[in-house]
Design a protein that fits this description.
The complex is a heterodimer. By secondary structure, chain A is an all-alpha fold. Helix content of chain A is 79%, strand content 0%. Chain A folds into two domains: 55 residues, no CATH class; 222 residues, MetI-like (MetI-like fold). The radius of gyration of chain A is 24 Å and the shape is globular. Classes of the chains: A mainly alpha, B mainly alpha.
């Protein structure tokens, strides 16, 4: 196990370092002068010179890269060129919206998909199973931004029950905040639910055919007891393997959903930063997201190897 | 955007697509046929739009703005008075072109890398798989954000982002299936006959995993259509005046309080196209490996 852990950790470090190099190259080296990228090619020379000095862009690329990484180790991401505040502060503020959105959607999707997946598997090849599979097929095909717009039309335009977008801030009261996040959370959870329902259903069906389940039934255990005591525990292992994919889906989902509902989260921040050519914000937010994806994949690998020793041997 | 990161489905090596009863079984596979009809409709709409659309998809007629569906405009008009049906037909071209180029790019590079890793194993495989890990750290939208921040928005960046993302998807799939093939007796026989890695890969490995590649390409195509729409919705994909379903949705959002129906059509076009391709992908998987169909 320790060899496996060491190998995985080394891969993790290489991947994170590689990701930071790619981000830096794509934003600050390959497009040419980053000062011109930020101000545009028609910007006056004096302005370009000023921003080079202000952001230290006159130094060699290698020095800037090392400075960036060294800063990250001290929790510093530099200064936003547009907002004139530290990027860490900006991200911290925006996470107050993005995190509840992501966590809410994950929770809702997990609960719903476990219920639906188990229901479909226990009603295999019956009408309930077909209904759930039809729902999950549709859920995978519906773009979440369109689903969000449809929910706005229904709940904000027609019924006028919920706001169509925006976020009042948690200072205005938890209830108002939760109300603003209700439609975004529901929207974001749709595709996750569809994805996890399919995996849960397949996993439960697969485990239910295993010999140990048959043995448990032969020993007199009821169908329901076998399901809860043996099948579900084992079926959760394959569900775990898509953890990395799910987190990546949630992250990219928040980027889109925040723009659909005009929520001031990290997703809105990064697209505003692209419009404003605020490279410092883009660079750090993209790295943050990439690191989260890599960390989750790393954790899933470790957890999976812990519950299934064959993985350690294969790797 | 969910499908940008949809679960990477795995397919087991099975019999070739071109087996004798394949067409008969395909015709009897209900969801595969539904998928074929939906996808066929999208392709026909795109092809017809090359030579004919009911109105010009880009012509602005302010007097006709935000009209509800009528005999003159079957799906109504948008905020600039453009005919929505014509825009959807032309938008199908964008989706298909982006999907085809992006998946071909990802498949070409990914399949080559996957075959190479399976044939060589050892450090070659290690390097390719670590590069693939790195690739997976960047979901499509992050790649698109990086390219857009560096070079500005555009359809080329959307295609590149999708293509780059697909490289690791194909590389992993092909490597896994390729390794399994390299352990089969007929490969040992070919080796005993003096054939080299390249010849074995081209003559024996590739033909035996082609069905897996076809299934993956179908799924990736569906994901590409969703991703292109999402990127265009966010303003980092297809740019005006090039019609795009994602941008139609983004523009319609400002008018949903006045004419909600205009936000329905482009979304429906995306759903039906993606659903069609997903059903084809699922159907192909069943047809290629009936063991999976029984298990499902």
């Amino acid at each position: 196990m320790s060899v496996f852990l060491a190998r995985r950790f080394l891969t993790f470090l290489i991947t994170v370092s590689g990701a930071s190099v790619i981000i830096f190259l794509l934003l600050e080296v390959l497009p040419g002068d980053p000062a011109l990228t930020m101000l545009g090619v028609d910007a006056p020379d004096s302005a370009v010179a000023a921003i080079r000095l202000e952001l230290g862009l006159d130094r060699p690329a290698a020095v800037r890269y090392v400075d960036w990484i060294a800063g990250l180790f001290h929790g510093e991401m530099g200064l936003s060129y547009v907002y004139k505040v530290p990027v860490t502060e900006l991200i911290g503020q925006r996470l107050r919206v993005t995190l509840p959105l992501a966590i809410g959607a994950m929770l809702l999707a997990t609960l719903t998909s476990l219920a639906l997946g188990i229901f479909a598997a226990t009603n295999h090849n019956r009408i309930g199973d077909y209904g759930v599979m039809g729902f999950s097929q549709l859920g995978l095909a519906i773009p979440d931004f369109w689903f969000g717009i449809l929910l706005i039309i229904l709940f904000a335009v027609i019924l006028r029950w919920l706001p169509s977008g925006g976020f009042p801030g948690w200072d205005e009261g938890i209830w108002r905040g939760l109300r603003a996040l209700a439609l975004p959370v529901f929207t974001l959870s749709l595709s996750l639910t569809a994805m996890m329902t399919r995996v849960t259903r397949s996993a439960v069906l697969e485990v239910a055919r295993e010999d140990f389940v048959r043995t448990a039934r032969a020993k007199g255990l009821s169908r329901r007891a076998a399901l809860w005591r043996h099948v579900l525990r084992n079926a959760l292992v394959p569900v775990l393997t898509i953890g990395g994919v799910l987190v990546a889906s949630v992250l990219t989902g928040t980027l889109i959903i925040e723009n659909v509902f005009a929520l001031p989260g990290v997703g809105k921040l990064i697209f505003d930063a692209i419009s404003n050519r605020d490279l410092m914000v883009v660079k750090n937010v993209v790295l943050l997201f990439a690191v989260i994806v890599v960390v989750v994949n790393f954790m899933v690998d470790i957890l999976y190897a812990m519950v299934d020793p064959r993985i350690r041997i294969q790797t | 955007m969910q499908a940008i990161e949809t679960v990477k489905e795995t397919v087991r090596p099975g019999q070739g697509v071109a087996s004798s009863g394949f067409v008969r079984r395909a015709l009897g596979h209900r969801s595969f046929m539904i998928g074929l009809v939906l996808t066929g409709t999208m392709i026909i709409l795109a092809l017809v739009s090359l030579v004919w659309t009911p109105h010009s998809p880009t012509e602005i007629v302010i007097a006709e703005r935000l009209k509800l569906p009528s005999p003159g405009h079957w799906l109504g008009t948008d905020q600039f008075g453009r005919d929505i049906l014509s825009m959807i037909m032309a938008g199908a071209q964008t989706s298909i072109v982006v999907g085809l180029i992006a998946v071909s790019l990802g498949a070409a590079v990914g399949i080559s890398l996957g075959l190479w890793a399976a044939a060589r194993r050892g450090w070659t495989e290690d390097v390719i798989m670590r590069l693939s890990d790195l690739n997976l750290a960047f979901p499509v939208i992050l790649i698109a954000i990086l390219l857009t921040a560096g070079w500005g928005p555009g359809i080329t960046n959307a295609i590149l982002a999708l293509g780059i993302y697909n490289i690791s998807v194909f590389a992993r799939q092909v490597r896994g299936a390729g390794i399994a093939m390299w352990e089969r007796e007929f490969v040992l026989a070919a080796r005993a006959a003096g054939k080299g890695n390249l010849a074995i890969t081209i003559e024996h490995i590739l033909p035996n995993i082609i069905s897996i590649i076809v299934v993956q390409a179908t799924i990736s195509f569906a994901i590409a259509i969703l991703a292109e729409a999402a990127l265009s919705y966010l303003g980092v994909g297809s740019q005006p005046p090039n019609p795009s379903w994602g941008r139609m949705l983004s523009e319609s959002q400002n008018y949903i309080f006045l004419t909600p129906i205009i936000a329905v059509w482009p979304g429906l076009a995306i759903v039906l196209s993606v659903l069609g391709l997903n059903l084809i992908g699922d159907g192909l998987r069943d047809l290629v490996d009936p063991r999976l169909a029984r298990r499902r």
